[in-house]
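Entry 14. Structure prediction run on the chain below.
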Amino acid sequence: MKILLTKFRISDALDAGRPLPEAARAEIAASPELRGFAEQTAEMDRAFRRAPGVMPADAPLHNSIMRAVRAAAAERAPRRASRVLWLAPASALAVLAALAAISFWLAAPRPPKPAEVAGTPAMAAVSAAFEFSGEMSRTMPAEMIAPLSNEWAQVDSDVRGATRFVLESLP
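Output returned:
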């Protein structure tokens, strides 16, 4: 890869008519392959420059050919993306979001219609709970506190028993 880069530098320097960089000259001196390439390329460059009618006389022809090549390349070059093209990914995401919302809506459980619920056992339980609600408001506090009261009574009994044990074991 480094040899290809050095060959490119040699060719570029000859095309531009400027001397090779010092680093490229050191690489050429160290490599027989690069040395041969540099000699052949320089010899070809001199031959083309000395040949009658190759460079100076045919410069207008060369320029017209290069203009035609550039024009053809410009026609084939991909045109710049329109500013509206950024909408394509956004609209695709919007469609996906809409599809996801519709699928979730279709998959979501629906509450039963009132006509379907009227004769079910669940409805009977709900109506019984409403009838019992007056009774619950009176009995609920006592029922909820009773286990806590029983637990505190057992803790008190344990503390008294532990106190009695400690006092009896003292000399």
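The radius of gyration is 48 Å.
Filed with the rest of this week's runs.
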